[in-house]
Amino acid sequence: MLTGLAARVSLWNRRRKLALFLDELRPAPETTVVDVGVGDTGFDTEPGVALSHNFFEALYPWPERITAVSDVPLPNFAQEFPSVTCVTASGTDLPFEDDAFDIAFSNAVIEHVGGRDEQRRFVHELCRVAPRVFVSTPNRWFPVEVHTLMPFVHWLPRDARDRVFATLRRNAWAGVELLDQRELLGLFPAEATTRVVESKITITVIATRPPHDPTGAPGECGPRGRS
What is the signed CA dihedral for 158, 164, 167, 169, rounded to 10 degrees? Predict the structure, then answer.
C-alpha cells in the first residue's frame, strides 16, 4: 500500500515537474532535447509505473524531438516510445558535439552517477551539449529519503546510514549520493548562470550559458568536438 501511494505521489510530482520545465524553458515544436538517464524497467509491472519512470517522454508534446540517453540498452523503452531517438552512452561522456541540442534535461539521475567528481563531469557534459540545462534531484535535507521511503536515516554519517539501510534491506539506497542545494550548484561550470526553481522535496536548477565559440581553445569544461 505504501509503495502504491509513493508511486502515485511520484507521478503527481513528475507531472508537476514537466509543467515547470514547459513554463520555465518554453520549448517549441522545433526545440531539440536530450534526456540523460532514462530507464528501461517498469513496463511489465503495474499500470503507471513506467509512466512515472519515463514521464518526460510519455507526456512531452513533441517526443520526436527527444534523444534519450541511457548507460544500458533500451529495448522496452524504444518499443514504448518509438518516436524517441535512443542512444546508449555514459552520462559522464556523452557522444555528441558541443551545442548538439537546444536543451539538456535530467531528472533524478545525478544522485546515481557516483561521487562528486562523477557528478561534476555529468553536469559539465549536460552544459557542453546544450546551452540550456534542466537538472533535478531529491533534496538531501528533505526528511524522507525518496528511494527508501525512510525518514531521517539519510542524515546520518555515510558509514552509519549505509549500515542501517543494509540491515533493513533497503537495496534502493545502493549507490545513491544525495546533494543539497549548495552542493548541486557547485557542480556547474563557471560560465553557466544558474537559477534554483524549486528546493523542497527536490532541488531543480536551470542553467544557461553562452553558445560555445567553435574557434576558441577548449578549457576544463570548454568545447570539444566529436568524431
Answer: -80
